Amino acid sequence: MKSIKRTQRIISLVILFFVLGMAVLVFKLIHESSFYMMNSDKHELGFVYDRKGDVLFDGTGKDSYPDNYFLDVGNIIGDDKGQMENTLVAQNIEKLNNYSFSNGLIQNGGQASICTTLDHASNRAVFNAYGYQEGCVSAYNYKTGEILVCTSLPSLDVTKGYDNIANFKPGTLMSKNLYKTVPGSTQKVSTVISALEIMGTSQLFSKSFTCTGKYTNRTGNDIDCHNPYGHGTQNIQEAFENSCNPFFAQLIEDEDLPLDRLKKQYEKMGYAINGAKPEYIDINGIQCETASTTLEDPYQFKTQWGCIGQGDTIVSPIQLMMWQSAIANESGRMTMPYLIDHVTDLKGNVKEKAKTRYSDKLFSESTASSTKQIMLTNGSDRYAYSISGYRVGVKSGTAQVDEGMKENSLLVGFVDDPSFPIAFCILIEDKDSGYLTTEQVAQVLLDNLKNNY
Q: Which GO terms describe its cellular component (predicted)?
C-alpha cells in the first residue's frame, strides 16, 4: 500500500513538473519568438513615418520610392543593415518587429510602426538649400521637445545599399547633429549665461572693455579680434553683437568672474571640464555627445580662447540647440528632445506615446530672461533683414578647424513666438567653399516649418 502511494506521489510530481515545463516553454515561445524571428533570415520590419505619415523607412522593401527619396534623413533614420548603429532604426528595431507568436509573420507590410516628429518636407528643403556644401541643421519645438528637422550632409539613400561604401564621403554614415564640433562664437552664449549667473544683470552691464583689434592678456598672449581696427569701448550687449574676442578675454580675467564659479556654472550646463569624462544625451536610444572644454587659468590663452569658442571647446549642434530652449522659455531648464512621437503595434494600437520632459535647472529664470533679451536685441539689430518675418534671438559663430586651414559657420537661435516656438542650430562646413550663409539656411528652415508644421 505504501509503495502504491509513493508511486502516486512520484507520478503526481512528474505530471506537475511536466505541466510547469510546458508553461515555461509556452511563456518563452510567446515572449522570445519575436527575438528569434528578428534574428532570422525571414524577419520583416514595419515602417517609420514622419509626423504627417510620409514614409521615412520601409522595412519590407516591397514598395518603390523616387530616387534619393530618403536622402535628407538617411543618416538619422538609418536601416537594419548594421552599417549605422547610432540611428533611430538601429536603436529601436524591436519596435518595428512585424511578428508575434499569436499573429505570426505579417506579410502585407505590417502595422508595426514608429511615428516620428520629423517633418520630411522641411528636412528636404533644408537639405536641398545646401547644394554641394556640407554641414547639418537641427530644429525643434522648444515647448514640447519634438525634433522637426535633423538633416546632415553628406547623407545617403538607404534603399541604394552599401556596395559603394569605400567611396562614401567622410561623415556620410553619421548625423553630424549628434557629434561634437568647434562652436566658434556661439560659445559666447554660454559665457554670457555664466557671467549673468555669477555677477547678475546690473553688474555685468556695468562692465565695459576696450577693443583695439587685439588684446594682449596678462600672460603675454594675443587675443585677436575679427575687426583689425577694433570696436572701441563696449558693454556686454555691444560686444555680443560685435562678437568681440578681446572684450570676452578681458571679461574672463575680471575679478568679479572667479574661475571656480565659472567652472561650476559650465559644469551645471553640461560641460565636461579639464578632461572629465563627458556624458551622453539620450534621444530615443540614440546617443548625442555633450560639451567639453578646458578652464585652468583665467589669465591664460587656452581658458580665454575656450570661453570664446575655440581651443579645447567642442559641443554638439543638438546641445547648442537645447540650450536655446532654456533661454527662450525663460525657465533655465532645457526641453529634452525626442524623435519618436508614438509607436503602433501589429494591430495598429498606439503605444509608447511621447511626453514632454525637462532637464534640471541649469541657470536662474532671471539669467534666462536677460540672455533672451541680449539675443533678441542682436536679432533685431543685425538679422532683421537677413532672417525676415520672424522675431529671432540669435548668435553666430565662426569656428577654425583643421588647424586653422578651414572655417565653419554656425548660427544658434530661437523664434520668439508662442505659436511658432522653434529653436535651431545651423552648421555650414568650410564656409568659404561656397556662397551659402547660415542666415539663408535659417530663412529656408523657418519658412518651410511655418508652412508645413
A: plasma membrane
Euclidean distance between CA atoms 389 and 386, whole angstroms? 10
What φ, ψ does residue 440 adopt, rounded to 5°? -65, -40
In whole angstroms, give the CA distance from residue 299 to residue 259.
Answer: 10
Rounded CA separation 143/140 (Å): 9
Asked if residue 139 belongs to a domain, the reply is no
Q: How far apart are CA 330 and CA 186, in angstroms?
A: 19
What's the pLDDT at 264? Answer: 98
Cell 512528474 maps to which residue?
14
Q: Which residues pair with 114 in a beta bridge?
A: 48, 343
**Is residue 108 one of the residues assigned to a domain?**
no
**Residue 13 reports pLDDT greater than 70:** no
C-alpha closest to that of 273 among 308, 332, 314, 317: 314
Strand order in the sheet with 406-415: 147-153, 135-141, 422-428, 406-415, 392-401
Give the Å distances, CA to CA, from 32 to 19, 36, 44, 110, 356.
19, 7, 16, 19, 32
pLDDT digits (tens, 9 = 90+) for 57-102: 998 877 889 999 999 999 999 999 999 999 999 999 999 998 654 4
Q: Measure the CA–CA gap between 316 and 86, rounded to whole angstroms.
A: 15
Beta-carbon contacts of 358 under 8 Å, excluding residues fewer than 6 positions away, are 331, 333, 334, 335, 336
What is the distance between the alpha carbons of residues 32 and 37, in angstroms, rounded to a whole number?
Answer: 9
pLDDT at 35 over 60: no
Of the candidates 184, 293, 292, 312, which has an alpha carbon nearest to the alpha carbon of residue 248?
184
> In this structure, are residues 123 and 73 in contact, taking their beta carbons and an 8 Å threshold?
yes
Q: What is the rounded CA–CA span in Å between residue 336 and residue 82? A: 27
Q: Which grid cell is 89?
A: 532604426
β partners of residue 409? 398, 428
Question: How many domains is the chain built from?
Answer: 1
Predicted local confidence at residue 62, as pLDDT: 76
**What's the burial of 175, exposed, middle or buried (CB within 10 Å: 0-12/13-18/19+)?**
buried
Buried b (16+ CB within 10 A) or exposed e, 292-301: bbbbeebebb
Q: Read off the CATH number of the domain in which 327 is found.
A: 3.40.710.10
Let me know if residue 323 belongs to a domain: yes
Q: Is residue 398 part of a domain?
A: yes
Q: Is the pTM of this model over 0.85?
A: yes
